[in-house]
Design goal:
alpha+beta; BirA Bifunctional Protein, domain 2; 3-stranded antiparallel beta sheet; 18 strands
């Protein structure tokens, strides 16, 4: 969430950002009103406490001097102060809770370079990478290839779990593991620390990294412990330093997280109901950076370049788009998406998101670093490296052969014993 000083000192900046997003100022006005009520209630409470303390001293002095009537007069005068303090204390707590609940729903301030537009059709092209493959035959969609080759068993997974779960088998399972190891090694070589996070988080930590009002519908809850299965390792890795003051010598913290991810993916129908493009469980390798504020925009470009270099090394064709105001969530200040070309469906589909969240998550997580002027919120950034299921789809569709087999990207072949082709499961 935005720092409360941003509301007090720069509310016009927040209002201008809301105008770009085409959302009302109601929440801004509510935060300011409740903040003023909270500060006034706190001031009034302090004044009453001072009056009670002064009265206590007056009563003690009167009793000491033997002036009983004076002591009784003071006691009569202040007998209701305790009740008034209780009322104001409750008001202070209520105003603060309501103010911050609304403040958590106010989105981050967008970077000036974010294009203005009402939906994803207004995202702007940043760059094109690789050559669009010319297969020389009618391409198949990945759904038909993975099922025809026996690499995925959807029906048996649906039998024991439900739709959009799958058994990954044979050479495709081996290539999925190769992708995990290759992507992790790629980032370890760039000084990222490999981390395998917990696969569940409590609500407080999750509210620190995302807007649960929007995101909770796609998450799996774990009862009776009130945990959530993680939707990406970005969330536990970013929340890892919650309630901590980080020493500046530790920054930047650069991590590569690897984990299963769990999402309900509600509301998506059609071709995505088949195959492994939109599924409830998948593995993702994620980049995370926690850094000083003045360094975050350079780190955003670094994360983006890592993703570009990684995807270029796989020899795949994709484009990069700059996400516009209407397609941006509440947490990121700027986001790039990489969209892979899928010849089977004839469309570009999102495979990587790269975001700078500035101090938005850090404020929610109370995550700061030490400076000479006092403690200051860090900036947090994240980017997909590889979501294995979607990366497999891109490889399958772009590298498919006319006989239905698939060429393995050169960089993955050493992780598969030098194998060059994905063979059907016998």
């Amino acid at each position: 969430m935005l720092d409360i000083m941003m509301f007090r000192q720069n509310a016009d900046i927040i209002r201008a950002d809301h105008d770009k997003r085409e959302i009302s100022h109601d929440n801004i006005d509510s935060v300011l009103r409740l903040d003023e009520e909270w500060r006034q209630a706190r001031y009034d409470t302090d004044q009453l406490r001072k009056a009670r303390n002064e009265a206590a001293r007056g009563i003690a002095a009167a009793k000491k001097s033997g002036d009983k009537s004076a002591a009784e007069a003071i006691m009569a005068e202040v007998k209701n102060i305790g009740a008034q303090i209780d009322v104001l204390t409750k008001k202070t707590e209520d105003c603060l809770a309501e103010r911050d609940a609304i403040r958590m729903r106010v989105p981050n301030i967008l970077h000036e370079s974010v294009p203005v537009g009402e939906d994803d059709q207004k995202n702007t092209l940043h760059s094109l990478h690789g050559e669009k493959v010319e297969l020389g035959f009618e391409p198949k969609v990945h759904n038909d290839l993975v099922e025809g080759n026996g690499w995925v068993d959807l029906s048996r997974a649906a039998k024991i779990t439900g739709s959009r779960f799958y058994f990954l088998q044979g050479d495709l399972a081996r290539m999925e593991m190769a992708l995990q190891q290759y992507a992790a090694n790629f980032l370890i070589a760039r000084d990222y620390t490999l981390v395998q996070p917990p696969l569940m988080m409590n609500r407080e930590a999750y509210e620190g990294v995302t807007d649960l009002a929007d995101f909770e519908t796609v998450m799996y809850g774990v009862e009776p412990d009130k945990f959530y299965l993680i939707a990406t390792s970005e969330h536990p890795l970013t929340a890892m330093r919650m309630d901590e003051i980080i020493e500046p010598a530790e920054l930047p913290i650069k991590q590569v997280g690897i984990s299963p991810c769990f999402r309900r993916e509600v509301g998506a129908h059609g071709l995505s109901d088949r195959g492994i493009w939109r599924v409830h469980q998948f593995t993702k390798i994620e980049q995370i950076i926690i850094c000083k504020p003045e360094e975050s925009w350079q780190h955003h470009e670094d994360l983006f370049q890592n993703a570009v270099d990684l995807w270029d090394s796989l020899g795949l064709h994709y484009r990069v788009v700059n996400i516009c105001t209407g397609d941006m969530g509440s947490v990121a200040a700027k986001k790039y998406d990489l969209e892979a070309w899928l010849p089977g469906v004839g469309e570009y589909k999102e495979v990587v998101s790269c975001s700078n969240c500035t101090d938005y998550q850090a404020n929610r997580l109370r995550m700061r670093y030490r400076t000479a002027e006092g403690n200051e919120a860090v900036h947090t950034l994240n980017s997909t490296a590889i979501a294995t299921s979607r990366t497999l789809v891109a490889i399958i569709e772009q590298n498919q052969l006319e006989d239905g087999r698939v060429k393995i990207p050169d960089v993955l072949q050493p992780y598969m014993g030098g194998q060059e082709i994905l063979e059907p499961l016998a």
